[in-house]
Design goal:
By secondary structure, this protein is of the alpha/beta class. The chain has nine helices and 21 strands. The strands form six sheets. Strands 1, 2, 3, 4, 5, 6 and 21 form a seven-stranded mixed beta sheet that branches. The chain has a five-stranded parallel beta sheet with strand order 8-19-9-10-15. A three-stranded antiparallel beta sheet has the order 16-17-18, with no helix packed on it. α1 packs parallel to α9. The longest helix is centred in the C-terminal third of the chain and has 22 residues. The radius of gyration is 22 Å and the shape is globular.
Length: 379
């Protein structure tokens, strides 16, 4: 089957891209490896809420409902994405996992796990920055008598009742899972290897997201200095609690390393009250717990690896070299040279204001690029 554009992935990036393309009159195929659209969002932990305000998180052509809270819940996002598909007349072909994308006459050819071969003039890769779990191993793992799982398999605190749990990694996911556990009366600790940036989600009632967007419009040196001062004034020195602050401002860390600061929604208060213990990095597992790099031991019944994900898009392009940054993300959204006709939406994690905001902007830009290319391409 051939179309003007094939969009791979029916999460926010794929839905937004397909909607923008259809609005511009192009014939679009939309495939999704999961059993339903927004499969990744459906699988996130129950407690999850957006850390970005709804007005800056909506996709092109449909705002979040007026009744939705400022920070929409996971379930609310799923409902919104389902409504978005209906609103734009999108019917993703689910259970269709793309295995390989290769050049073909007049465009590109994609083979799927079901054995189908799909052809399109252009392909929008929207498979997500968080597709494959990063799962580090440590010495002694085979002898550990507890349970080890990746944060992608965490749903809620119920299975961990009366257990001692270690969360490895204090990004946004690790911080919020630790908070979820302690709110349910579970003994929890966090292992933190490196210095980090922590900012409050709101300061004096103003969302930090909006402040970040405003500061990013300034010259880098000014914006970075202001972001550092705001962080230091509102969060302060956390070294007494075992947390080291990054020497980089939150804005610079995001811009240069693609690392989002921890958006605090209550974890920091639990750390300060000593309800959540902080340990350094892991050295090895023991039979009944973990030994840390400072030589201390602590008992745990479960270890949750909040150690992030990889996009893994290189697996989709056998024989075609990709230009990727240090995080394995495409360096641009428009393919050039051998990748002409390939577009990437939803992988730029360096922009202020959150990924959904970036997706909304990129989906429209890519749709305009594809329309322009389609109008000039020979038939």
């Amino acid at each position: 089957m051939r179309s003007d554009a094939l969009v791979i992935g029916a999460g926010p990036a794929g839905l937004a891209s397909a909607a923008c393309l259809r609005q511009r009159g192009l014939q679009v195929q939309l495939i999704e490896r999961g059993a339903q659209l927004a499969a990744s969002w459906r699988a996130h932990y129950d407690r999850l809420h957006l850390h970005t305000v709804k007005t800056e998180s909506a996709l092109p052509g449909l705002p979040f409902p007026a009744a939705a809270p400022r920070y929409v819940s996971r379930a609310g996002v799923v409902d919104y994405l389902a409504a978005y598909a209906v609103h734009h007349g999108l019917a993703p072909q689910v259970g269709e996992e793309a295995l390989a994308i290769v050049p073909a006459a007049g465009g590109w050819q994609t083979s799927t796990a079901s054995g189908r071969v799909l052809r399109a003039r252009t392909v929008v890769v929207a498979t997500g920055a968080n597709r494959w779990p990063n799962r580090p191993s440590f010495a002694g793992e085979a002898g550990f008598r507890g349970r080890i799982l990746h944060s992608g398999d965490y749903r809620n605190a119920l299975p961990f009742a009366r257990q001692r749990v270690l969360v490895v990694g204090m990004g946004n996911t690790g911080a919020e899972i630790a908070l979820d556990l302690v709110e349910h009366g579970i003994g929890v600790a966090i292992s933190v290897r490196a210095p980090l940036n922590i900012v409050h989600r709101d300061v004096l009632g103003r969302p930090t997201q909006l402040t970040s967007i405003a500061l990013a419009r300034l010259p880098h040196a000014w914006g970075d200095a202001a972001a550092r001062v705001l962080r230091d004034l509102t969060v302060g020195d956390l070294s007494r609690y075992g947390l080291k602050t990054s020497p980089l401002s939150p804005l610079r860390q995001l811009r240069e390393h693609g690392k989002t600061p921890v958006i605090d929604v209550g974890t920091l208060a639990r750390i300060k009250s000593r309800e959540i213990a902080v340990h350094p990095g892991i050295d090895r597992y023991t039979a009944h717990g973990v030994r840390f790099v400072d030589g201390t031991d602590a008992p745990f019944d479960a270890v949750i690896l909040a150690t992030g994900y990889a996009a893994g898009i290189e697996k989709l392009f056998p024989g075609t070299e990709l230009a990727l940054d240090r995080n394995g993300m495409p360096v641009g959204i428009v393919g050039r040279g051998p990748l002409q006709g390939i577009y990437f939406v939803g992988f730029d994690i360096r922009q202020p204001g959150g990924l959904l905001r970036t997706i909304a902007q990129q989906a429209q830009q890519v749709a305009d690029e594809i329309v322009a290319a389609t109008q000039t391409a020979p038939r």
